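Before the break, one more example. Copy the sequence into your notebook; we will annotate it together after we see the structure.
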Amino acid sequence: MNRFSDRDHDFEWDRLSNESVLAIEAQIRAARKYVIPSDNLRPKVIEAAKEYSSDAKGDFRLGMIVFASAILLILSMPIANRLQAWHQDFLVLNSTEVQKRALEICSEKGVGSEWAIVEAFNERRNEQAAKLGVSGMRHPADKNVPTNPLQSGKR
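Here is what the structure looks like once it is written out:
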């Protein structure tokens, strides 16, 4: 079996005789006197090895950063969806929604449109407080203040 495969070299080692192999080896030994490595060969080889090693480390770090970013992105998707739903439930206060509710309050309770808007806002705030688990959004000093003028007996 030859030491070199045919795909790497076009030379066929099996066809050489022992004498020709010995002659080639003798020529290589004789050439050692003429082939002299330069003085900076070793430092160049070491520098090239360091560059290759640092490039490989940089590639590994970059790969790990990309992998970690992908995992973070995948894991943050459900959180982003929850935040978007939370934004819709708590932060968005649509004026048309409040006005529709104010009109309903006007017709249900028979109060003026100004007071109905205040009631609609209070209802929306209380809904948000209930979703957040807060007891209410009124100031503690406002416990005795009625939310509806009809409750106080005045109009």
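Residues 41-91 form the longest helix (51 residues). The chain has five helices and no strands. Try to locate both features in your own notes.
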